[in-house]
Structure formats: C-alpha cells, structure tokens
TrEMBL record:
It is found in: Cell membrane. The chain crosses the membrane at residues 12-33, 75-95, 107-128, 140-163, 184-209, 245-264. This is Carbohydrate ABC transporter permease. GO terms for biological process: transmembrane transport. Belongs to the binding-protein-dependent transport system permease family. It holds the Pfam family BPD_transp_1. Residues 72-264 form the ABC transmembrane type-1 domain. Keywords: Cell membrane, Membrane, Transmembrane, Transmembrane helix, Transport. Its main location: membrane. It is a multi-pass membrane protein.
C-alpha cells in the first residue's frame, strides 16, 4: 500500500514538473500573442500584462506595410521547393550509400557527416563570392541551391540510419518480379521511410521558414523575393523599434509553421528514434 502511494506521489510530481516545463516553453508564445495586441506604450510599460484594449488593427497594418501576402508566398515557395529537393536527393543518396558500401561511398558519407560540424559563419563570405560569380544572388534558384547544399548533410545522416533497418529481402523480391532500380526505391523502399521522411520535412521546414541570415545574404534587396523574416526586420530601425507591429508580424508568421508542427509532431520522435537504433 505504501509502495503504491509512493508511486502515485512520484507520478504526480513528474506530471507537475512536466506541466511547469511546458508552461516555460509556452511563455514566449504568450508574450508574442499578448503584446501583438497592445500599443507600443503598453508594451514598454508592462510586457507581461494583458492589453487594456485589444489592438487588432496591428495585424491589418502589418498586412499592408510589409506586403504580407507576397512575403508569405515567397516563404512558402522557397520552403516547399527546398524541402522537396532535400527529401528527394538525401533519401536517394542515403539509399545508395547503404546498399553499395564501397570505399568511395563510405568516404562520401564521412564527408557528409564532417560537414555538419562546420559553422555557417565560417563559410558565408566565400558563399557570397561564389554565388555572385555564378550569378545566383537575388534569384530564387540561388537561395534554393544554397538550402539544398546546407540541408543535405543532416538529412542524409537521418535517412542513412533508417534505411539500414529496411529488409533487403523485400527489394530482392521486387527485383525478381521485374521492378527497376528506381521502381524498387520509389515503390518499395520510400513508402517505408515515411516516419523519417516526415521528420526530415519538419526539421528542414522549421529551419528554412525561420532562417534570416542566408536569405539576407542571397536575396538581399530583391523585394520580389523577400521572405517573412526579412520583411519583419522593417520594423527595427537604427533609432526606432516598432515592437507592437513586429510582434504582430511575428505572430502571423509563426502560425502556419506551428500548425504544421502540431499536425506532424508525433513523427519526430518516432523517426529519429527509429533511425538511431536501426542497423
């Protein structure tokens, strides 16, 4: 009886700790949402309090000032094309590296893993020079190519670990039935990679959608390709910071990505865990 009571108390303590931890992580969302409905004066006086009068006009002003539909469209297009390319290329690359473990392929996989430890800041100046020489700056193709290059390493690593757990006998049976090598991968193997594929989609979408540094280097002053993070910086000048409008823009920008995460979050732990223990 005492043991059961001790177990209940322990579980209750864990639940209380989990709730407090969840509230800690949700606190930034509270500050963003609440302060996006205030005037600048109210934010400066007390950022934690509820607004005296809800200023929904902040959202309509941001919508017009930063051309939010254009920025949203650019963010969606760049993110969708980049993520689709990363998933396609990295999954096929990882499949080849696993199924053909030659010395060259092992060295190539080692190169992918090694590139993950190189800080972006150490190569960004060279990146600007190379993209300028190749005339990729200020262009949709340029930003997508850069995201493909920087996003492949981690994605290949995740797919590589997961593919090791796919039974080779399934592929051999498909080959005996007359399936081509590409047919084996897309019809047999890739559907089995759904958990890790969704994980790769979520991780890269979160990164690309919220990224600021790479777009500011590649897109620059091209207003037709401005993404949401670049557009929101308009509210931060040298002498003034329009927190009320900036937070409204931030709330609008995170809404799509939060909805995507809530819909697909169960695959993150499933995919990463499966990929880490297989093989």
């Amino acid at each position: 009886m005492n043991r059961e009571r001790s177990l209940r108390y322990r579980l209750a303590g864990i639940e209380v700790f989990a709730i407090l931890l969840a509230l800690l992580f949700l606190a930034p969302f509270y500050f963003v949402l609440v302060n996006s409905l205030k005037t600048l004066g109210e934010i400066l006086v007390d950022a934690a309090s509820l607004p005296d009068a809800y200023k929904f006009s902040n959202y309509s002003r941001v919508w017009d000032m930063i051309r939010f539909p254009t920025a949203l469209r650019n963010s969606v297009v760049i993110t969708a094309i980049s993520v689709a390319g990363i998933v396609t290329i990295s999954s096929m690359t990882a499949y080849r590296l696993v199924r053909k473990p030659t010395r060259f392929n092992n060295l190539l996989f080692l190169a992918f893993i090694s590139s993950m430890i190189i800080p972006f800041q150490s190569v960004m100046l060279q990146l600007v020079r190379v993209t300028s020489i190749l005339e990729l700056r200020g262009d949709l193709l340029g930003i997508v190519v850069c995201y493909l290059g920087f996003g492949l390493a981690l994605s290949v690593f995740l797919f590589h670990g997961f593919i090791k757990g796919v039974p080779l006998e399934i592929e051999e049976a498909a080959v005996m039935d007359g399936c081509s090598p590409y047919g084996v991968f897309w019809r047999i193997v890739f559907p089995l990679l759904k958990p890790i594929a969704v994980t790769v989609v979520i991780l890269n979408t979160l990164w690309i959608w919220n990224d600021y540094l790479l777009p500011v280097l590649i897109i620059g002053s091209n207003k037709d390709l401005t993404t949401i993070p670049l557009a929101v910086t308009r509210f931060f000048g040298q002498y003034t910071k329009q927190w009320d409008l900036a937070l409204a823009g931030l709330a609008m920008s995170v809404t799509p990505i939060v909805l995507l995460f809530l819909l697909l979050q169960k695959y993150i732990v499933e995919g990463i865990t499966a990929g880490s223990v297989k093989g």
